[in-house]
Amino acid sequence: MKKYIIIGLLLLVVGSMIIKPLLSGGDSSEIPATFEFKDNLATVWNKQINLKINVNSDDIEKLELIYNDSVFKTWTKPSSQIVFPFNASYYGLGAKNLILQSTLSDGTILSDERMVRILSDVKPQFWKSKIDASFPHQTSSFTQGLEFDDQTFIESTGQRGESMIAKVDLKSGSIKNTIALDATYFGEGITIINGKIFQLTWEEQKCFVYDKNTLQIIKDIPYTGEGWGLCNDGKSIIMSDGSERITFRNAETFNVEKIIEVYDEKGPITRLNELEYIEGKIYANVWMTNSIIVINPSNGKVEAIIDCNDLEKAGKGLMGDVLNGIAYNKLTRKIYCTGKKWDKLFEVSFLKPGI
User: Fold this and answer.
1) pLDDT tens track for 172-182
2) Exposed site from 103, 149, 161, 243, fewest CB < 10 Å?
Protein backbone atom coordinates (compact mmCIF):
# COMPACT_ATOMS: atom_id res chain seq x y z
CA MET A 1 0.00 0.00 0.00
CA LYS A 2 2.64 2.48 1.07
CA LYS A 3 6.40 2.67 0.87
CA TYR A 4 6.77 1.74 4.51
CA ILE A 5 5.03 -0.75 6.69
CA ILE A 6 2.22 0.22 9.03
CA ILE A 7 1.26 -2.39 11.59
CA GLY A 8 -2.16 -1.94 13.15
CA LEU A 9 -2.75 -3.45 16.56
CA LEU A 10 -6.18 -3.99 18.00
CA LEU A 11 -5.96 -3.42 21.72
CA LEU A 12 -8.67 -5.11 23.70
CA VAL A 13 -9.74 -3.83 27.08
CA VAL A 14 -9.34 -6.53 29.68
CA GLY A 15 -11.15 -6.63 32.98
CA SER A 16 -13.97 -4.66 34.56
CA MET A 17 -15.05 -1.11 34.05
CA ILE A 18 -17.15 0.76 36.62
CA ILE A 19 -19.72 3.33 35.56
CA LYS A 20 -21.14 5.43 38.42
CA PRO A 21 -23.17 8.34 37.17
CA LEU A 22 -24.78 8.83 40.60
CA LEU A 23 -22.07 7.62 42.94
CA SER A 24 -18.36 8.42 43.05
CA GLY A 25 -15.56 6.20 44.26
CA GLY A 26 -15.57 2.41 44.57
CA ASP A 27 -13.54 -0.43 43.10
CA SER A 28 -14.18 -3.62 41.13
CA SER A 29 -15.04 -5.58 44.26
CA GLU A 30 -18.17 -3.42 44.61
CA ILE A 31 -19.67 -4.57 41.31
CA PRO A 32 -22.89 -6.37 42.27
CA ALA A 33 -23.04 -8.62 39.21
CA THR A 34 -20.08 -9.85 37.18
CA PHE A 35 -19.26 -12.19 34.34
CA GLU A 36 -17.71 -15.41 35.61
CA PHE A 37 -15.02 -15.40 32.90
CA LYS A 38 -12.24 -12.90 33.61
CA ASP A 39 -10.70 -12.33 30.20
CA ASN A 40 -12.16 -11.29 26.89
CA LEU A 41 -14.14 -13.90 25.03
CA ALA A 42 -13.68 -15.50 21.61
CA THR A 43 -16.44 -17.46 19.98
CA VAL A 44 -17.46 -18.68 16.53
CA TRP A 45 -20.18 -17.40 14.23
CA ASN A 46 -23.60 -18.87 15.02
CA LYS A 47 -22.32 -20.85 18.01
CA GLN A 48 -24.35 -20.62 21.20
CA ILE A 49 -22.39 -20.28 24.43
CA ASN A 50 -23.57 -20.22 28.03
CA LEU A 51 -22.72 -16.94 29.75
CA LYS A 52 -22.35 -17.43 33.48
CA ILE A 53 -23.19 -14.37 35.56
CA ASN A 54 -22.39 -14.07 39.25
CA VAL A 55 -24.96 -12.08 41.24
CA ASN A 56 -23.07 -10.74 44.25
CA SER A 57 -25.70 -8.46 45.79
CA ASP A 58 -29.38 -8.58 46.71
CA ASP A 59 -29.71 -4.83 46.10
CA ILE A 60 -30.02 -5.07 42.30
CA GLU A 61 -33.30 -3.67 41.03
CA LYS A 62 -32.50 -4.31 37.36
CA LEU A 63 -29.76 -6.25 35.61
CA GLU A 64 -29.20 -5.76 31.87
CA LEU A 65 -27.06 -7.66 29.41
CA ILE A 66 -26.01 -5.13 26.75
CA TYR A 67 -24.35 -6.32 23.55
CA ASN A 68 -23.03 -3.86 20.97
CA ASP A 69 -25.15 -1.08 22.54
CA SER A 70 -28.38 -3.11 22.46
CA VAL A 71 -30.12 -4.59 25.50
CA PHE A 72 -30.25 -8.35 24.95
CA LYS A 73 -31.77 -9.43 28.24
CA THR A 74 -33.17 -7.81 31.40
CA TRP A 75 -33.61 -9.42 34.82
CA THR A 76 -35.61 -7.85 37.68
CA LYS A 77 -34.23 -8.34 41.21
CA PRO A 78 -31.95 -11.28 40.35
CA SER A 79 -30.82 -13.22 43.40
CA SER A 80 -28.62 -16.10 42.23
CA GLN A 81 -26.15 -17.14 39.56
CA ILE A 82 -27.52 -16.82 36.04
CA VAL A 83 -26.71 -18.97 33.03
CA PHE A 84 -27.78 -17.26 29.80
CA PRO A 85 -27.62 -18.96 26.38
CA PHE A 86 -25.94 -16.35 24.18
CA ASN A 87 -25.35 -16.24 20.43
CA ALA A 88 -22.96 -13.41 19.58
CA SER A 89 -23.54 -13.56 15.81
CA TYR A 90 -26.40 -11.07 15.72
CA TYR A 91 -24.16 -8.12 14.79
CA GLY A 92 -21.77 -10.05 12.57
CA LEU A 93 -18.09 -10.90 12.83
CA GLY A 94 -15.57 -8.88 14.77
CA ALA A 95 -14.87 -7.38 18.17
CA LYS A 96 -17.95 -6.17 20.08
CA ASN A 97 -18.67 -4.83 23.57
CA LEU A 98 -20.50 -7.00 26.10
CA ILE A 99 -21.71 -5.16 29.20
CA LEU A 100 -23.43 -6.41 32.36
CA GLN A 101 -25.13 -3.36 33.86
CA SER A 102 -26.59 -3.35 37.37
CA THR A 103 -29.02 -0.67 38.54
CA LEU A 104 -29.24 -0.59 42.36
CA SER A 105 -32.18 0.47 44.48
CA ASP A 106 -30.70 3.95 45.01
CA GLY A 107 -30.20 4.49 41.26
CA THR A 108 -26.47 3.72 41.21
CA ILE A 109 -25.34 2.04 37.99
CA LEU A 110 -22.37 -0.34 38.06
CA SER A 111 -21.08 -2.21 35.02
CA ASP A 112 -18.81 -5.11 34.20
CA GLU A 113 -17.51 -4.97 30.63
CA ARG A 114 -15.78 -7.45 28.32
CA MET A 115 -14.93 -7.68 24.65
CA VAL A 116 -16.30 -10.50 22.52
CA ARG A 117 -14.57 -11.44 19.26
CA ILE A 118 -16.65 -13.45 16.78
CA LEU A 119 -14.61 -15.60 14.39
CA SER A 120 -15.78 -17.02 11.08
CA ASP A 121 -17.13 -20.55 10.95
CA VAL A 122 -15.70 -20.97 7.43
CA LYS A 123 -12.22 -22.33 6.75
CA PRO A 124 -11.10 -20.61 3.53
CA GLN A 125 -10.31 -22.62 0.45
CA PHE A 126 -6.88 -22.18 -1.12
CA TRP A 127 -6.89 -21.23 -4.80
CA LYS A 128 -4.08 -20.75 -7.30
CA SER A 129 -3.60 -18.01 -9.86
CA LYS A 130 -2.88 -18.88 -13.51
CA ILE A 131 -1.52 -16.46 -16.11
CA ASP A 132 -3.55 -16.60 -19.34
CA ALA A 133 -2.02 -13.59 -21.10
CA SER A 134 0.39 -10.76 -20.33
CA PHE A 135 0.54 -7.11 -21.41
CA PRO A 136 3.03 -4.25 -20.86
CA HIS A 137 2.58 -2.08 -17.76
CA GLN A 138 4.20 1.27 -17.05
CA THR A 139 6.96 0.83 -14.46
CA SER A 140 6.43 4.44 -13.39
CA SER A 141 2.89 3.62 -12.19
CA PHE A 142 2.64 3.00 -8.44
CA THR A 143 -0.69 1.20 -8.88
CA GLN A 144 -3.36 1.91 -6.27
CA GLY A 145 -6.57 1.15 -8.14
CA LEU A 146 -7.38 -0.69 -11.37
CA GLU A 147 -10.73 -0.68 -13.21
CA PHE A 148 -11.90 -1.97 -16.56
CA ASP A 149 -14.43 0.19 -18.41
CA ASP A 150 -15.51 0.19 -22.06
CA GLN A 151 -12.42 -1.72 -23.21
CA THR A 152 -10.18 0.79 -21.41
CA PHE A 153 -8.25 0.45 -18.19
CA ILE A 154 -8.61 3.22 -15.67
CA GLU A 155 -5.66 3.20 -13.27
CA SER A 156 -4.96 5.31 -10.22
CA THR A 157 -1.46 5.74 -8.88
CA GLY A 158 0.01 6.84 -5.57
CA GLN A 159 2.94 8.71 -4.06
CA ARG A 160 2.77 12.43 -3.42
CA GLY A 161 3.72 14.36 -6.52
CA GLU A 162 3.09 11.27 -8.70
CA SER A 163 -0.57 10.51 -8.00
CA MET A 164 -2.91 10.51 -10.98
CA ILE A 165 -5.79 8.83 -12.75
CA ALA A 166 -4.96 7.51 -16.22
CA LYS A 167 -6.73 5.87 -19.12
CA VAL A 168 -4.49 3.05 -20.28
CA ASP A 169 -4.45 1.02 -23.51
CA LEU A 170 -4.51 -2.66 -22.60
CA LYS A 171 -2.42 -4.07 -25.45
CA SER A 172 0.38 -1.50 -25.44
CA GLY A 173 0.27 -0.32 -21.83
CA SER A 174 0.53 3.26 -23.07
CA ILE A 175 -1.19 6.04 -21.16
CA LYS A 176 -3.76 7.83 -23.32
CA ASN A 177 -4.75 10.68 -21.03
CA THR A 178 -4.42 11.57 -17.38
CA ILE A 179 -5.37 13.93 -14.62
CA ALA A 180 -2.88 14.50 -11.81
CA LEU A 181 -3.55 15.19 -8.15
CA ASP A 182 -2.00 18.11 -6.34
CA ALA A 183 1.34 17.08 -4.79
CA THR A 184 -0.15 17.32 -1.30
CA TYR A 185 -2.38 14.28 -2.01
CA PHE A 186 -1.48 10.59 -2.02
CA GLY A 187 -3.84 8.88 -4.46
CA GLU A 188 -5.47 5.56 -3.57
CA GLY A 189 -8.14 3.20 -4.88
CA ILE A 190 -10.78 3.97 -7.49
CA THR A 191 -14.16 2.67 -8.62
CA ILE A 192 -16.54 3.61 -11.44
CA ILE A 193 -20.27 3.88 -10.85
CA ASN A 194 -23.08 5.93 -12.44
CA GLY A 195 -20.71 7.46 -14.99
CA LYS A 196 -18.36 8.78 -12.31
CA ILE A 197 -14.91 7.77 -11.07
CA PHE A 198 -14.39 7.91 -7.31
CA GLN A 199 -10.80 8.17 -6.06
CA LEU A 200 -9.69 7.93 -2.44
CA THR A 201 -6.70 9.64 -0.86
CA TRP A 202 -4.59 7.93 1.77
CA GLU A 203 -4.38 10.29 4.74
CA GLU A 204 -6.06 13.42 3.43
CA GLN A 205 -9.61 12.13 4.12
CA LYS A 206 -10.94 13.31 0.78
CA CYS A 207 -12.57 11.43 -2.09
CA PHE A 208 -12.37 13.04 -5.54
CA VAL A 209 -15.19 12.46 -8.03
CA TYR A 210 -14.51 12.71 -11.78
CA ASP A 211 -16.52 12.54 -14.97
CA LYS A 212 -15.68 9.12 -16.40
CA ASN A 213 -15.34 10.35 -19.98
CA THR A 214 -13.49 13.65 -19.55
CA LEU A 215 -11.62 12.96 -16.29
CA GLN A 216 -12.67 16.39 -15.09
CA ILE A 217 -13.20 16.77 -11.35
CA ILE A 218 -16.86 17.14 -10.42
CA LYS A 219 -16.50 17.48 -6.65
CA ASP A 220 -14.66 16.20 -3.61
CA ILE A 221 -16.19 14.49 -0.59
CA PRO A 222 -14.73 14.40 2.95
CA TYR A 223 -14.60 11.21 5.00
CA THR A 224 -13.05 10.14 8.28
CA GLY A 225 -10.02 7.85 8.49
CA GLU A 226 -7.61 6.49 5.90
CA GLY A 227 -8.55 5.59 2.34
CA TRP A 228 -7.14 2.43 0.74
CA GLY A 229 -9.25 0.46 -1.75
CA LEU A 230 -12.58 0.95 -3.57
CA CYS A 231 -15.02 -1.13 -5.57
CA ASN A 232 -18.79 -1.22 -6.01
CA ASP A 233 -21.60 -3.75 -6.31
CA GLY A 234 -23.66 -1.64 -8.69
CA LYS A 235 -25.54 0.00 -5.83
CA SER A 236 -23.08 0.90 -3.07
CA ILE A 237 -19.46 2.04 -3.02
CA ILE A 238 -17.32 -0.39 -1.02
CA MET A 239 -14.26 0.99 0.78
CA SER A 240 -11.31 -0.37 2.77
CA ASP A 241 -9.22 1.63 5.24
CA GLY A 242 -6.25 -0.65 5.98
CA SER A 243 -7.96 -2.43 8.86
CA GLU A 244 -10.27 -5.46 8.81
CA ARG A 245 -13.25 -3.16 8.27
CA ILE A 246 -15.00 -2.70 4.94
CA THR A 247 -17.47 0.17 4.66
CA PHE A 248 -20.42 0.32 2.29
CA ARG A 249 -21.28 3.88 1.24
CA ASN A 250 -24.16 5.45 -0.63
CA ALA A 251 -23.12 6.07 -4.24
CA GLU A 252 -24.73 9.52 -4.28
CA THR A 253 -24.05 10.92 -0.80
CA PHE A 254 -21.03 8.80 0.25
CA ASN A 255 -22.77 8.31 3.60
CA VAL A 256 -22.04 5.08 5.48
CA GLU A 257 -24.68 2.40 4.93
CA LYS A 258 -23.08 -0.50 6.78
CA ILE A 259 -19.73 -1.85 7.96
CA ILE A 260 -18.56 -5.45 7.88
CA GLU A 261 -15.43 -6.90 9.50
CA VAL A 262 -13.35 -9.40 7.54
CA TYR A 263 -12.47 -12.58 9.43
CA ASP A 264 -11.38 -16.13 8.80
CA GLU A 265 -11.58 -18.93 11.35
CA LYS A 266 -8.46 -17.62 13.14
CA GLY A 267 -9.13 -13.90 13.41
CA PRO A 268 -9.28 -10.59 11.54
CA ILE A 269 -7.63 -10.04 8.15
CA THR A 270 -6.17 -6.54 8.06
CA ARG A 271 -4.31 -4.44 5.45
CA LEU A 272 -7.11 -4.90 2.93
CA ASN A 273 -5.97 -2.89 -0.05
CA GLU A 274 -7.18 -2.71 -3.66
CA LEU A 275 -10.69 -4.12 -4.05
CA GLU A 276 -12.74 -5.53 -6.91
CA TYR A 277 -16.32 -6.81 -6.92
CA ILE A 278 -16.51 -9.97 -9.03
CA GLU A 279 -19.72 -11.94 -9.46
CA GLY A 280 -21.12 -11.28 -6.01
CA LYS A 281 -17.87 -11.42 -4.01
CA ILE A 282 -15.30 -8.85 -2.89
CA TYR A 283 -11.73 -9.63 -3.96
CA ALA A 284 -9.07 -7.84 -1.94
CA ASN A 285 -5.30 -7.54 -2.20
CA VAL A 286 -3.71 -8.03 1.21
CA TRP A 287 -0.96 -5.43 1.29
CA MET A 288 2.62 -6.67 1.57
CA THR A 289 1.60 -10.21 0.56
CA ASN A 290 1.06 -12.04 -2.70
CA SER A 291 -2.40 -13.08 -1.60
CA ILE A 292 -5.84 -12.04 -2.75
CA ILE A 293 -8.73 -12.97 -0.49
CA VAL A 294 -12.34 -13.60 -1.48
CA ILE A 295 -14.86 -12.06 0.92
CA ASN A 296 -18.57 -12.66 1.36
CA PRO A 297 -19.98 -9.10 1.25
CA SER A 298 -22.99 -9.93 3.41
CA ASN A 299 -21.03 -11.01 6.49
CA GLY A 300 -17.26 -10.51 5.98
CA LYS A 301 -16.33 -14.20 5.99
CA VAL A 302 -13.18 -15.05 4.04
CA GLU A 303 -14.17 -17.80 1.63
CA ALA A 304 -10.89 -18.25 -0.25
CA ILE A 305 -7.23 -17.22 -0.26
CA ILE A 306 -5.59 -16.98 -3.69
CA ASP A 307 -1.85 -17.64 -4.03
CA CYS A 308 -0.43 -15.10 -6.51
CA ASN A 309 3.28 -15.77 -6.04
CA ASP A 310 3.64 -16.73 -9.71
CA LEU A 311 2.32 -13.32 -10.74
CA GLU A 312 5.04 -11.53 -8.79
CA LYS A 313 7.76 -13.73 -10.27
CA ALA A 314 6.59 -13.03 -13.81
CA GLY A 315 5.56 -9.39 -13.53
CA LYS A 316 7.52 -7.56 -10.86
CA GLY A 317 10.57 -6.78 -12.94
CA LEU A 318 13.58 -4.91 -11.56
CA MET A 319 11.78 -1.85 -10.16
CA GLY A 320 8.51 -3.40 -9.02
CA ASP A 321 6.91 -3.24 -5.60
CA VAL A 322 4.10 -5.38 -4.15
CA LEU A 323 1.12 -7.03 -5.84
CA ASN A 324 -1.73 -4.52 -6.08
CA GLY A 325 -4.43 -4.10 -8.68
CA ILE A 326 -7.46 -6.22 -9.64
CA ALA A 327 -9.80 -5.40 -12.53
CA TYR A 328 -12.77 -7.31 -13.93
CA ASN A 329 -14.26 -7.06 -17.41
CA LYS A 330 -17.97 -7.80 -16.94
CA LEU A 331 -18.50 -8.36 -20.68
CA THR A 332 -15.76 -10.96 -21.19
CA ARG A 333 -15.69 -12.10 -17.52
CA LYS A 334 -11.90 -11.83 -17.59
CA ILE A 335 -9.82 -10.81 -14.57
CA TYR A 336 -6.65 -8.71 -14.68
CA CYS A 337 -3.94 -8.19 -12.04
CA THR A 338 -0.76 -6.19 -11.69
CA GLY A 339 1.45 -4.63 -9.03
CA LYS A 340 3.06 -1.34 -8.11
CA LYS A 341 5.62 -0.39 -10.77
CA TRP A 342 5.44 -3.84 -12.33
CA ASP A 343 6.44 -4.15 -15.97
CA LYS A 344 3.54 -6.48 -16.79
CA LEU A 345 -0.21 -6.66 -16.35
CA PHE A 346 -1.80 -10.11 -16.52
CA GLU A 347 -5.05 -11.65 -17.61
CA VAL A 348 -5.53 -14.36 -15.01
CA SER A 349 -7.70 -17.27 -13.96
CA PHE A 350 -8.21 -18.28 -10.36
CA LEU A 351 -8.14 -22.05 -9.98
CA LYS A 352 -10.18 -23.69 -7.27
CA PRO A 353 -9.18 -27.03 -5.67
CA GLY A 354 -9.58 -29.95 -8.02
CA ILE A 355 -9.15 -27.87 -11.18
Assistant:
1) 888 888 888 88
2) 161
